[in-house]
Write a structure and sequence with these properties.
By secondary structure, the protein is mostly beta strands. 0% of the residues lie in helices and 53% in strands. The strands form 2 sheets. Strands 2, 4, 5, 6, 9, 10 and 11 form a 7-stranded mixed β-sheet that branches.
Length: 118
């Protein structure tokens, strides 16, 4: 499988961005689709996950401000990010594999940069 993120950019605090992750090739239907992020000097962390049964879950990093969703027809994963904060500045990655487990991903996208200014 292949994953390609888009939609990153620069935004002011309080604004919104929507990230997209286009998938192609073979992705196991049992895989969890994840969004991770990595800020400079910090470890990569999970942000939100879409379970194979359709449930979604976000982490403390998202604080309820981010929503993960998927358009099956377009084979595209999304991350809607609202009420952005400067601490959300990071490279955001989509991945397919185990839910929230960085080392358990089978496929990674190349990442898209999000920069939030105060």
């Amino acid at each position: 499988g292949q994953l390609v993120e888009s939609g990153g950019g620069s935004e002011q605090a309080g604004g919104s961005l929507r990230l997209s992750c286009a998938t192609s090739g073979q992705i196991d239907s049992d895989d969890c689709m994840n969004w991770f992020r990595e800020a400079p000097g910090k470890e990569r962390e999970g942000v939100a996950a879409l379970f194979s049964d359709g449930r979604t879950l976000d982490t403390k990093a998202a604080e309820g401000r981010f929503t993960i969703s998927q358009d099956n027809a377009k084979r595209t994963l999304y991350l809607q990010m609202n009420s952005l904060k400067p601490e959300d500045t990071a490279t955001y990655y989509c991945a397919a594999g185990r839910c929230f487990y960085v080392q358990g991903q089978k496929y990674w996208g190349q990442g898209t940069q999000v920069t939030v200014s105060s």
